[in-house]
Structure to design on (97 residues):
């Protein structure tokens, strides 16, 4: 339930405001155990986002894990996690002008 709340009230509105969004995935490693699979990966994202009436460009990167289960003759994602490295306190997010 918490995942649905987060998706509906956090991810969907934020993603809807992003423009010119680009994702990239590298270093994908897939593991399989019966009807369960998981993948680890590196990702990059860039997008234009609204910020106090202006648009700013942001770039990000991090690591992720996806867990899938084989259900009803298809693979379904049952869990997704991604994270970015911590920035030092007071260090702004990378921006591109």
């Amino acid at each position: 339930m918490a995942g649905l709340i987060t998706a509906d009230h956090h991810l969907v509105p934020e993603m809807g405001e992003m423009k010119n969004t680009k994702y990239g995935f590298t270093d994908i490693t897939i593991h399989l155990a019966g009807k369960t699979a998981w993948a680890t990966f590196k990702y990059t994202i860039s997008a234009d986002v609204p910020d106090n009436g202006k648009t700013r460009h942001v770039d990000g990167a991090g690591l992720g894990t996806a867990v899938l289960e084989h259900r009803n003759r298809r693979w379904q994602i049952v869990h997704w996690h991604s994270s970015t490295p911590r920035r030092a306190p007071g260090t702004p997010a990378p921006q591109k002008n």
Summary: DSSP finds one helix and five strands in the chain. Confidence is low (pLDDT under 50) at residues 1-6.
